[in-house]
Amino acid sequence: MKNLKKELHFFLKLSVLSFLFIFSLTLKLGAQETAQPSSENKETKSAQEKTEDKTNDKTKKKEVSEFEEKRDTILYGIGDDILELIKRLKADEDDRFDADLKKIFAETKIPAIRDALFAYFAEKKNDCLKADALMVLENKEDFPQETVRSAISYIRELAIYEGINSLRTILKDEESEYRDLCISAIGKIGKPDDAIFLTELFDSEASDDEKKSLIIKQNIMFALEELHPAEIWDFLIRVAEDSDENTIIRGTAVSALGKIGDERAIPILSEIFEDKDPILRTAAIKGIAGFKDDKAKNIIIQAFKDSYYKVRLQAIQSAKEEKAEDAVPFILYRAKKDPENTVRIAAIEALSHFNNAEANEWLVDSFNEEKTGLSLRLKIAESLLKNNFDLIYEDVKAAALKAISEKQKNKFSAELGKTISTVENTGTAPIAEAYLNHKDPIFKSIGLDMFKRNRYPELIPLVSAIAEDEKNGALSRRAKDLLQAGNTNSAQDNQTGNK
To answer: Which domain does 410 fall in, by range?
Structure first.
């Protein structure tokens, strides 16, 4: 009996241990199944990844396709297509094809394409066509007149001094079709010797056509004003004081005289400021602006009260350029009260540079007041966003977001959006997002203008969505171009950084 009890006790004990072991094993297996995805989950995840990869590949293929399409146009397209593409690349600031375009310049026989490429690279300040421009000037008889003109403009814009002898030769030969451009180019890139050459050209001008002669002399004087070396002081004095000379020519000489910076000019300019001719008074203010003595400052202050609006405009411009804090009350008064809207706009732009407390308060209050008028409100927004961003941004953002949601304010919201799109500051991203999300294509386009200017990283997905939606038509194509250009520029920046 005792043996039977022992065997029964042993059997029960063994059963309990077995149960506990099996229960523990079941828990472990359950935990592992929870921690590890089933083969079905793995297959589902793999399918999602494949779908995403296909989408990405499709997008990349589209980008490559559009890149190749543009490149094929450059390499194989007809003239009109290439010219249209150059305009598009210029508008989108797309640099990816510059090497191909340079190659096309060397190969093309179409003058219009050469002219367009001179203008394209001139605007970008890219000197890749320097040798070509010099060659055109040296062999101008072999090229159409418009190509020669384009080459001169290119040399001027890039200040290529190696072309100065060719420019002088053209002027000596009295080739009228290029004369004005050559004079302007020398004014931009010349040295004191070239200025003396222009004074001699001025004095020797004796065309039978009085109107033609006057234009030539005026253009020479404009070039001399740009150069204004001390070596032509006596010449400028003579022209400025010649009462028989044309007023515009005299005024330009007066301005150039002041730019030389010799204080002997102050009494001369002061006397000319009292002339009854407003052109001469304007020139005197322009010329005297750089001088710091009290007499010069007083003349500028008096100019703010001149009856001729261009004299007041020049006073504002001169005070801004010289950062004349003493002139702020006068500029503020012009912004508030001037009868000419042009003067008020110039005053507003000038005030944005000074960061004066009283002026700032008036500017912000005027922007927020609808009665101020559209043109003035837009000018305040533009000027302060560029020159004192933090002062006006919150007010501009509030006004833009409110206006964009109200149909009756469509004109204001569109014009304000265009103004914001000219400002280079990534802080405008929330405004750009609102415009990009708008249903109206006009506002979406303005949003893309903002994106083009600032390349907001956080808005790339939104622009990508516009690009991928074919219903957006031209906006879709434009968004794709912006994204591609942005990717190319980023890659170029990274390569430069790595170097």
So the answer is: 357-487
Residues of the chain with pLDDT > 90: what percent? 70
Domain for residue 306, yes or no?
A: no
Structure tokens at 297: 């400052």
Residue 437 and residue 446 in contact, taking contact as beta carbons nearer than 8 Å:
no
Task: Please give the tally of structural domains in the chain.
Answer: 2
CA pair distance 91, 33, nearest whole angstrom: 59
Give the separation between CA 158 and CA 163, rounded to whole angstroms: 11
Residues 435, 404 contacting (CB under 8 angstroms)? yes
Alpha-carbon distance 411 to 332, whole Å? Answer: 28
Mean per-residue pLDDT for 308-323?
96
Q: Give the amino acid at 177.
A: E
Contacts 24+ apart (CB under 8 A), 454-462: 454/424, 454/425, 454/426, 454/428, 454/429, 455/486, 456/426, 456/429, 456/432, 458/429, 459/429, 459/432, 459/433, 460/486, 462/433, 462/436, 462/437
Instruction: Return d(Cα 53, Cα 84) in angstroms, integer.
Output: 35
Which of 409, 407, 398, 341 lies closest to 375, judged by CA? 341
Q: How does DSSP classify residue 200?
A: H
- Look at residues 190, 220, 243 and tell me which one is the last residue of a structural domain: 190
CA distance 77 to 71: 9
Quick: pLDDT tens for 269-298. Answer: 999 999 999 999 999 999 999 898 889 989
Question: Helices marked H in 357-469 — which ranges?
Answer: 357-368, 374-387, 389-403, 410-420, 429-436, 441-454, 460-468
93 within some domain:
yes
Check if the beta carbon of residue 418 is closer than 8 Å to that of residue 385. no
The encoded tokens of residue 410 equal: 């469509």
For the chain, state the CA radius of gyration: 35
Residue 165: how many other CB atoms lie within 10 Å: 11
| pLDDT score of 332 more than 70 | yes
Query: How far, in Å, CA of 268 to CA of 241, rounded?
Result: 9
Domain end among 157, 190, 223: 190
> Does 230 map to a domain?
no
Torsion-angle region of residue 259: left (phi > 0), alpha (psi -120 to 50) or beta? alpha
State how far the Cα of 273 lies from the Cα of 265, in Å rounded to an integer.
Answer: 12
Say what the pTM is: 0.76
pLDDT (tens digit, 9 = 90+) per residue, 6-21?
Answer: 444 544 454 444 444 4
By C-alpha distance, which of 223, 229, 279 is closest to 254? 279
Q: What is the pLDDT of residues 107-152, one digit of tens each?
A: 888 999 999 999 999 999 999 999 999 999 999 999 999 999 999 9
CB contact at 8 A, 231 and 195: yes
How many angstroms separate the first and last alpha carbons of the chain?
Answer: 95
Residue 445 inside a domain? The answer is yes
